[in-house]
UniProtKB/TrEMBL annotation:
Domain of life: Eukaryota
Family annotation (InterPro entries): SAM-dependent_MTases_sf (IPR029063)
Protein name (record): Methyltransferase domain-containing protein
Species, as recorded: Dictyostelium purpureum (Slime mold)
GO molecular function: methyltransferase activity
Pfam families named in the record: Ubie_methyltran
Gene3D superfamilies (UniProt xref): Vaccinia Virus protein VP39 (3.40.50.150)
Length: 266
C-alpha cells in the first residue's frame, strides 16, 4: 500500500484525525466564540487537517499553517487552490525556530500530532509560547501509549523480524499524561490541562488508508526494515490489525485510539 498525494488530500479533509482537530478547536475557542477575527498558527500542520477545519468554521480568522516538510505543504497548497480558500497562508518552517514571527502575535497555536515528532519538544513549545499573545491559548495533540498504532506496529515488527521493535515510537512521545503536563509547564504555559479524547475508526477502508506508506508513523518503522521485507511488513500490518482487533458481528472493527489534547494559556 502506498499513500498518494490524492489519498493524503482526502485524509486531510475527512480522515480519522480530523475528529481530534475539531475537539481541539472546541476546547480552545468554545463552541460559539463571540468573534472569529483572530490569528491562528498551526505548527507541524502536515496536510492541514486542523487549518482546513478552522478555515471552514472561522471565516474571518487569519490562519498560518506551517510544516518542516515541503511535500506536506505542497499537498495543502493544492487543497487550498482547489477549494478556493483565502484565509490560510502556508509556510515551510522549523517549528523549533520560528524566527519570522514576532512575540505576542497569535491568539491560538495548535500542533495536532506534529510536535510529538520534534527532536526537542520543549523548544517547540517555548516557541509557541513566545509567539502567542498574552492569555493566548495552545492545544497540542498526542496519542496515548495504548493507541492501536504503537500496539500493532510492535506486534507486526516482532512477527516479521523475530525480535522486539528496537526504536521508541515518536507517536507516543507524549503518551504519558504527567510528562505531557510537565513539558508544557516547563515551556511556560499556565492552567495546563490534559484532556483524554477517544475516537474509534470502524470503516475498513478508512483504517487501510491510515495503515499506508507515507504516514510518518508507518515510515518510522519501515525505515529500519530491510528493503526486501518492506512489502511483507505492509501486508502483515493489516493481518495483525484484524487479528488484534477482531470484527464485531455487524462487520465493524473498533481500533483503540485514545488521544491526549494538552491545553495551556500564556
Amino acid at each position: 500500500m502506498a499513500s498518494t498525494p490524492q489519498a493524503l488530500k482526502v485524509l486531510s479533509r475527512f480522515g480519522f484525525t480530523s475528529q481530534f482537530s475539531v475537539e481541539a478547536l472546541k476546547l480552545t475557542t468554545g463552541d460559539q466564540p463571540k468573534s472569529d477575527n483572530f490569528k491562528i498558527l498551526d505548527v507541524a500542520t502536515g496536510t492541514g487537517t486542523l487549518s482546513l477545519f478552522a478555515s471552514s468554521i472561522f471565516k474571518n480568522a487569519d490562519i498560518i499553517a506551517s510544516d518542516f516538510s515541503p511535500n506536506m505543504i505542497s499537498i495543502l497548497n493544492q487543497i487550498i487552490k482547489e477549494d478556493g480558500i483565502t484565509n490560510i497562508k502556508t509556510k515551510v518552517e522549523d517549528g523549533m525556530n520560528m524566527k519570522d514571527y514576532n512575540n505576542d502575535t497569535f491568539d491560538y497555536c495548535y500542533s495536532m500530532f506534529g510536535l510529538i515528532y520534534f527532536p526537542d519538544r520543549v523548544k517547540g513549545l517555548k516557541e509557541m509560547h513566545r509567539v502567542l499573545k498574552p492569555n493566548g491559548k495552545v492545544a497540542i495533540g498526542s496519542w496515548r501509549k495504548d493507541h492501536y498504532f504503537p500496539v500493532i506496529l510492535s506486534k507486526t515488527y516482532e512477527k516479521l523480524m523475530g525480535k522486539p521493535l528496537p526504536i521508541e515510537q515518536p507517536i507516543i512521545s507524549l503518551g504519558d499524561k504527567d510528562q505531557f503536563k510537565k513539558e508544557m509547564e516547563e515551556a511556560g504555559f499556565k492552567n495546563v490541562q490534559i484532556h483524554l479524547i477517544d475516537k474509534i475508526p470502524k470503516d475498513l477502508k478508512e483504517y487501510k488508508d491510515i495503515l499506508s506508506k507515507g504516514n510518518p508513523v508507518i515510515d518510522d518503522v519501515l525505515n529500519i526494515i530491510p528493503d526486501d521485507k518492506k512489502q511483507q511488513f505492509e501486508d502483515l500490518l493489516v493481518q495483525v490489525t484484524e487479528q488484534t482487533y477482531p470484527r464485531k458481528s455487524d462487520g465493524t472493527i473498533e481500533l483503540d485510539s485514545p488521544c491526549y489534547i494538552g491545553l495551556g494559556t500564556k
